[in-house]
Amino acid sequence: MNNKNEVNEAPGLSAPITGKKIFFVRHGKTEWNNQFRYQGVTDIPLCEEGREQARRTGLRFAKAKIEAIISSPLSRAYETAEKIACHHAGINVEKLDLLEEVNFGEWEGLTVNEIKNRFGEELFYKWRRNQLHVDAPGGEKMERLYARSSKVAKMLLARPEDNIVVVGHGAMLRALFLPMLELPRSNIFWKTRIDNCSISAFSVEAGNRYILSYLNDTLHLRDCGGEIISMPII
After folding, report:
1. pLDDT score, position 225
2. pLDDT at 133
3. What is the per-residue pLDDT for 134?
4. Per-residue confidence (pLDDT) for residue 13, from 0 to 100
5. CA 23 – CA 25 distance, rounded (Å)
6. What's the CA gap between 223 and 230, in Å, rounded?
7. Catalytic member of 100, 101, 140, 205
8. 209-217 β-sheet, strand order
9. 56 belongs to an annotated ligand binding site
10. Where are the active-site residues found (predicted)?
């Protein structure tokens, strides 16, 4: 029996993860995260807690063989990416506009209660039930979001590096994971947890297919003393 063929036919079941790996990191916390305000493309910097989260995330990747680090151009993501890059000599963070967070238009800077009071509960819950088909007023069209997510998925697949870190945003990453897994547009925003400075990983296996290895790993953010640097990535 050909073990290699079996791995190709049933990737990810029990075979070791080999080949190309892409790690996705959501940026560290900001004051608006703590206040539960929609940030979108508003360029809010990391707060002190977020900087500590980013530092810990950098330590988590310190012993990994990282070949490229790609970030949203927004400062909260870029600063998080820099904390990872500082452990990898010769690697500069690449900014990619396609990774920018979803533009929430007139909702940016508002809390959920403020959105409901100003725009009505009906619109908010309609959007929450089906975010990839309903737009925030004045915000990014969901058709555009899905299209740019698909571009990022294809671009990452074509990159020559075997170990890539991508630093982005909660809503954008949730949208990006759909085309990566060849899933149709669907409302997974409130069914997928992606915490600040969490790590999610995909491998690229037989047939150039993405396989989700794990989602929302936050072990490095816990009170674990000096053990972060020895934690495995995959």
Report:
1. 59
2. 78
3. 84
4. 54
5. 7
6. 14
7. 101
8. 93-95, 68-71, 163-168, 21-26, 199-205, 209-217
9. no
10. 27, 101
Rounded Cα gap, residues 76 and 172, in angstroms:
14
- Using CA atoms, how far apart are residues 158 and 140, in angstroms rounded to an integer? 26
> Given phi > 0 = left and psi -120 to 50 = alpha, else beta, which region is 43?
beta
Name the nearest CA neighbour of 161 among 70, 46, 39: 70
Query: Which listed residue (27, 88, 169, 220) is catalytic?
Result: 27
Q: What is the DSSP letter of 35?
A: T
Q: What whole-number distance in Å separates Cα of residue 81 and Cα of residue 32?
A: 19
Q: What stretches in the chain show pLDDT beneath 70?
A: 1-18, 187-190, 224-226
128 among annotated binding-site residues: yes
Whether 190 has a binding-site annotation, put simply, is no
Active-site residue 48, yes or no?
no
Partner residues linked to 23 by β-bridges = 165, 201
| Alpha-carbon dihedral sign for residues 94, 99, 103, 107 | negative
Q: What is the pLDDT of residue 87?
A: 97
End-to-end CA distance of the chain: 28
Query: How long a stretch of residues is the chain?
Result: 234
Is residue 3 within 8 Å of 20, Cβ to Cβ?
no
Catalytic (active site) residue 101: yes
Q: At what angle do helices 75-85 and 48-60 cross, to 10 degrees?
A: 40
Which residue type is seen at 169?
H
Q: What is the pLDDT of residue 1?
A: 43
129 annotated ligand binder: yes
